[in-house]
Sequence to fold (582 residues):
Amino acid sequence: MKDEKKEEKEKTPAESAATVTPPPNFIREIIEGDLKEGKNEGRVHTRFPPEPNGYLHIGHAKSICLNFGLAAEYGGLYNLRFDDTNPSKEDVEYVDSIMEDVRWLGFDWEDRLFYASDYFEKLYEYAVQLIKKSKAYVCDLSADEIREYRGTLTQPGQNSPYRERSVEENLDMFERMRQGEFPDGSRTLRAKVDMASPNLNMRDPVMYRILRASHHRTGDKWCVYATYDWAHGQSDSIEGITHSICTLEFEDHRPLYDWFIDQLGIFHSQQIEFARLNLSYTIMSKRKLLGLVQEGHVGGWDDPRMPTISGLRRRGYTPESIRDFCERIGVAKRESTVDIALLEHCLREDLNKRAPRVMVVLRPLRLVIDNYPEDQVEELDAVNNPEDSSMGTRKVPFSRVLYIEKDDFREDPPKKWFRLAPGREVRLKHAYYVTCTDVVKDEKTGEVVELHCAYDPESRGGWTKDDRKVRGTLHWVSAAHSFPVEARLYDHLFTKEDPDDVKEGMDFKSNLNPRSLETLASCQAEPSLKDAEPGSRFQFMRQGYFCVDTVDSTPDALVFNRTATLRDTWAKIEKALQESEK
Ligand code: ATP
Ligand code: MG
Fold:
């Protein structure tokens, strides 16, 4: 059957940003103020500057939606720029995955793809300018010595003994650093700012280090590499970025970035900081995520349990639901942790409307309808999505032997059990009423292996003439027509809301959830799913949203990832809040 219904004419994120009135936030206020004053000739130009040292995660999605969404909203432009100044940790694999993920999220940077490495020559020239102004010097202190000289938050630093080198000597030494005359780590170029500044970032920060490492774009051309602090602000300036939006940890770096720009007298981008996204039961540090991948705690960066964009995509998340989530969480100046239930809620809202509903039995139990003719097969009509009649109907075969969920039968049912039990009647979705007449057990184990039922031929479609009420409606498949599939059920990757909350001497990995993946290898699916495409999404009735895995699934052996259960804890939280406010 066909997968999700395609919207008749899908809006690009830019188009929807332009038509929907967004809630105010402090960044929008700044931009609107700038526009009113006619700053930057009314231009709005933003960028997303990832370092290609890992895959993007949901936190980056927030930054992308913010940077690109705002530019689109104000009719501006946005750049994708790789901040590739640290060759030892970077890789083209990451560059490629980042581009794929940004595109998948729905953003098109057109011809505005840049690399900080494109500016290495320009940055070198800028550094020479600072040396000529006596605002930078070559320092022979080792990394450890630089740290010692830096001082602390309460104590001022000491000037480096190399601070007063002449301009000529500095120019000569810097050139020789570039030519490869000195060993790695033996010298640095430092900005000459203020070793007594209360802001440690201003205490003569390092601008260049000597490092013989091949760069994924410039190869072995360079053996001196700019630090992030030196490259970042100038890259923004070169690209004419008007609003350089970044996370709070860069607030203390802003005075340094401003200092560089002022010394060079170049275009001044305005940096605006916001609080990064933290999500419960999730870690967001690329270093830690890399650790999980390298140590085999997950199957890879795109493991469906990972908070990476590629993991979420493989799990079955839609770009729409992630953009909706990013809009709803808004931006703030103070760090907080967002409940992962909100992300799942956004997903359910989206898939509820779009994913067709089908029947798959995850843990099959045979059910034989003794009074149903042996060779009879009926093709019953089933609605694809009650939320959207335009998604039509399909035929589902019904016959004498079915599978239902093991969990839907109890020999000894508790109170308020509305599903099947000896002597009880239930409705089979789209089909008939059945009453359980007998139970077959394994002689050795006592496990229930088969049920016998009688059906009411008058109840076709799930209703009776006498309007007899049953409380339970079960999903099922016809044993002769269904086919086996694998389902992978996921739980949070960590058992704690804050995975970094650990006992002394332990690390976040001690909070990994040993039950984050459950594989059910012998589920039974209705025949309409036979040619489900990789990546297509469905609601398995009563079991949750599922997506055909894009990596391990084959046409002969379909694998489904459970994207989310149907239980919407966020909706419950919201409802409780509303009621408490009444
Ligand atoms: P990590 O801490 O995961 O390694 P990072 O900040 O080092 O992330 P970058 O590649 O430098 O990774 O990030 C690119 C952009 O994404 C930066 O502007 C950064 O501020 C932003 N960003 C990173 N993590 C988050 C987050 N959790 N929430 C919002 N924005 C984020
Ligand atoms: Mg960073």
